[in-house]
Amino acid sequence: MKNCQPEQNFHTPIAANQLLNYDQSIEQLISQNNNKNKISILIEKSQHRLTLYYDRKPVKSYPVVFGGNSTGDKYGEGDKKTPEGILKIKDLYPHPQWSKFIWLDYPNTQSWRKHFQAKADGKLPWSIPVGGQVGIHGVPTGADKMIDDRTNWTWGCPSLKNKDVDELYQWVEKGTVVEILP
């Protein structure tokens, strides 16, 4: 495991600290044929920002919050951390409590490696499973203030305002790349 190459960054983060084009719809910003294969997402935990990219160029950013223990990478179930690295969208579906759920492929090969390495290094007990069911989703109805206040409330999922996850949901598909940076 120690000889495995770390994954390379997929996106170039935007330099500014603010949100990009938050007051405009994606439809206004992407005037081409709207090819979903050219969509990808960058999530920067330190900036509380999720940015949608089209053809590897930043288009629009949203405020986002994370697991209750937001510092560091996810190594195991129940740690309330949001995974870091390159993931892909596994599925999309409406969610009864949080508007939409954009299910990510955690755990993937890279996260399994990090999980077992944490156990081998003594950072995680051997009894802790890797976890799963990580996805981008909304908030309970009327709870947008948690996003505005940067309240990290989930078990490890990135969470957006419901109107934001509803918009994003229309532009992504199974296989869309989602990169999560510290």
Explain the overall architecture.
Helix content is 15%, strand content 24%. The model has no long low-confidence stretch (mean pLDDT 92). The protein is globular. The protein has a seven-stranded mixed β-sheet, covered by helices on one side. The chain is of the alpha+beta class and 182 residues long. It has helices at 26-29, 109-120, 145-148, 162-169, and strands at 39-44, 49-54, 57-63, 85-95, 99-104, 135-137, 177-181. It is built from four helices and seven strands.
Brief summary:
By secondary structure, the protein is an alpha+beta fold. Helices cover 15% and strands 24% of the residues.
Biggest β-sheet, characterized? 7 strands, mixed
What value does the Rg take, in angstroms? 16 Å
Question: Could you tell me the strand content as a percent range?
Answer: 15-25%
- Taking pLDDT < 50 over at least 5 consecutive residues as the criterion, the unreliable ranges are none
Q: Please give the order of strands in the largest beta sheet.
A: 3-2-1-7-4-5-6
Please state the overall shape, judged from the principal axes of the Cα atoms.
Answer: globular
Q: Separation of termini?
A: 22 Å
Q: What percentage of residues falls in helices of 4 or more residues?
A: 10-25%
The helix/strand series, from N terminus to C terminus, equals HEEEEEHEHHE
Number of strands: 7
User: What does the average pLDDT come to?
Assistant: 92
> How many H/I helices?
4
Class computed from helices, strands and strand pairing:
alpha+beta
